[in-house]
Design a protein that fits this description.
Shape: globular
Oligomer: single chain
Helix content: 55-70%
Number of helices: 6
Strand order of the largest sheet: 1-3-2
Number of domains: 2
Structural class: mainly alpha
Distance between the termini: 36 Å
Largest sheet: 3 strands, antiparallel
Radius of gyration: 15 Å
Mean pLDDT: 85
Number of strands: 3
Length: 136
């Protein structure tokens, strides 16, 4: 893990852990390694929500098949757990940054989530990523 204040932090590191100590919060980033599709499917079948969320982010960061990842992000958005849905939103932002594109369906889904109190902030961030990193 690396400290957020370190100027050498690689921008590809994306998983944030917040550690509260007294009155201070220390943000740490941890690198998420690639995941195979088989391992991804296994985690979705039996993993905890946290493990599933991490697996989705690992897939978004490392799998070259844009459509496959985007479909799995959309599936995450259909789930009950807000944390897993938030991971789907975050992963869609990563797709925009890494592939410099997203589908119209993704933009529509993210816009609809702006009215969801649990996901409005994450959806706005992902839409900002799309605006910055995609080229019309």
């Amino acid at each position: 893990m690396t400290n957020l204040l370190d100027p050498n932090v690689d921008s590809r590191l994306d998983s944030t852990r917040i550690i509260l100590t007294g009155h201070y919060a220390l943000l740490l980033y941890e690198e998420l390694p690639p995941i195979s599709r088989t391992a991804f499917a296994d985690v979705l079948a039996v993993g905890t929500i946290q493990a599933q969320s991490e697996a989705l982010l690992r897939l978004a960061l490392h799998d070259a098949d844009f459509s496959f990842v985007e479909q799995n992000c959309h599936r995450a958005l259909d789930q009950q757990d807000a944390n897993f849905r938030r991971a789907g939103v975050l992963a869609l932002g990563h797709l925009a940054r890494l592939h410099q594109r997203v589908s119209d369906a993704t933009v529509a889904r993210l816009r609809s989530l702006r009215s969801d109190p649990q996901l409005a902030g994450a959806a706005a961030d992902a839409l900002d990523d799309i605006a910055v990193f995609t080229h019309p």
